[in-house]
Amino acid sequence: MSPINRVSKFHISSPILSGLTYAFIWMMLGALALSMLLWLSGMQEENLPKYSYILHGFALFIGGMTSGRRAEKRGWYYGGLLGILYCLIIMLVSFLAYDAGFSVSVLVMLIASFSVAAIGGMLGVNMKRS
Predict the structure, then answer these.
(1) Residue 1 domain-assigned?
(2) Residues 64, 124: contact at Cβ < 8 Å?
(3) Domain count, the chain
(4) Among positive and negative, which fits the CA dihedral 49, 120, 86, 33?
(5) Cβ contact 40:94 at 8 Å
(6) Is the pLDDT of residue 44 over 80?
(7) Which of 19, 68, 102, 117 is the most exposed, having the fewest neighbouring CB atoms within 10 Å of its CB?
């Protein structure tokens, strides 16, 4: 019997799609952790928005790093585009689920999403691929 020499890996070649995938995976894991923390500890629901903003920022940063690393150039561009798409998807979900409208705070979130993901993309370009 011969050993398996090569194992095929699932690889998303698009920097934006791979960044969005990683961002949403980290967002879902963080949301699960926040839910467990809220359920099992004495954390109050009033603190939840602050932690969810931190969670979204972390997910955007990781997604930006992933897209920048996959792109290998123009990390701020791919990271920023990822941040805009991520924010638009979150806005669409909030509109469909909660009937939330457009306001100045949404514009601030869009700018913050672009900035955090662009910084992640700039750092991701400079990471070595293994």
Answers:
(1) no
(2) yes
(3) 1
(4) negative
(5) no
(6) yes
(7) 102
